[in-house]
């Protein structure tokens, strides 16, 4: 019985396509991708033109393939060790082309591979689908050999600049009570946004898009109003215990009566802050540096660390 991997010529074209958009693949990345394509072989069906047309999502890339039978390299499952070594050396020769110019004319490009960068929202949508598929399997009573674990990520967002500062969960209440000043955000409206970072087997796959945000107005020292927080907190609890949604009005009268509370507690719509949310995905899911996501709140000057003086 034989299995397959992506053939050498198609692999070279894959490398070139990634290089062409500024994505420099490592040999191990390409080897894994070639094997992934081979693993898909049993489920692939030829299209009307006798080619195998399919797409692979490999964050942060979408890679489209248009392959013929000859673009796959067959490998026997009982391949002798010496043949394995020969094949690996041949593949190493292919990977050595990573160090050469992308226009190297050794092998002609045949339009088999099309690579494009996925947008952050596409990456997140794919990750959410993967997460939800696993959850559905678990809910159906099926065995899922993955560890699904959500991790809380909290940000203090400057909505005007669309820049967010990560804040630990145990610092949110002191911040809301005015015990943690942020002079850089003085006299600004800010939002505390809570995301769930969804991880599978320890690897981040997506950020929850349906979440909540709480609005605070900081004073000239960058402190939240503790009295306002206490009042709003009690009203939020009372609303929750009475069975009402804490961020959505039941009717027009409720909307008018609790306008300030519903303005403070509101659903977070990622479409309202696209620059920030795209960078949240880059920062949290892809592990990239981000211009709009900071690892922590701005540092407080030494003379502001003496405690709250109001």
From TrEMBL:
Spell out the protein name for this chain: Uncharacterized protein
Q: Which domain of life is it from?
A: Bacteria
């Amino acid at each position: 019985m034989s299995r397959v991997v992506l053939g050498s010529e198609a692999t070279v074209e894959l490398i070139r396509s990634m290089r062409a958009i500024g994505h420099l693949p490592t040999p191990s990345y390409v080897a894994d991708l070639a094997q992934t394509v081979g693993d898909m072989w049993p489920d692939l069906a030829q299209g009307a033109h006798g080619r195998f047309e399919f797409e692979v999502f490999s964050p942060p890339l979408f890679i489209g393939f248009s392959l013929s039978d000859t673009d796959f390299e067959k490998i026997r499952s009982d391949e002798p060790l010496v043949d394995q070594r020969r094949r690996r050396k041949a593949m190493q020769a292919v990977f050595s082309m990573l160090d050469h110019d992308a226009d190297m004319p050794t092998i002609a490009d045949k339009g088999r591979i099309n690579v494009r960068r996925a947008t952050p929202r596409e990456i997140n949508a794919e990750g959410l689908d993967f997460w939800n598929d696993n959850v559905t399997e678990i809910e159906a009573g099926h065995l899922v050999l993955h560890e699904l674990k959500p991790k809380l990520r909290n940000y203090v967002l400057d909505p005007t600049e669309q820049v967010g500062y990560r804040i630990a969960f145990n610092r949110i209440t002191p911040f809301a009570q005015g015990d943690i000043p942020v002079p850089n955000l003085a006299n600004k409206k800010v939002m505390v946004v809570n995301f769930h970072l969804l991880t599978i087997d320890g690897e981040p796959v997506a950020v929850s898009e349906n979440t909540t945000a709480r609005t605070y107005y900081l004073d000239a020292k960058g402190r939240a109003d503790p009295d306002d927080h206490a009042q709003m907190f009690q009203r939020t609890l009372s609303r929750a215990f009475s069975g009402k949604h804490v961020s959505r009005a039941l009717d027009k009268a409720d909307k008018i009566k609790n306008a300030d509370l519903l303005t403070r507690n509101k659903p977070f719509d990622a479409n309202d802050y696209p620059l920030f949310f795209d960078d949240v995905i880059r920062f949290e899911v892809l592990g990239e540096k981000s211009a709009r996501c900071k690892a922590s709140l701005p540092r407080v000057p030494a003379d502001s660390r003496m405690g709250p003086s109001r």
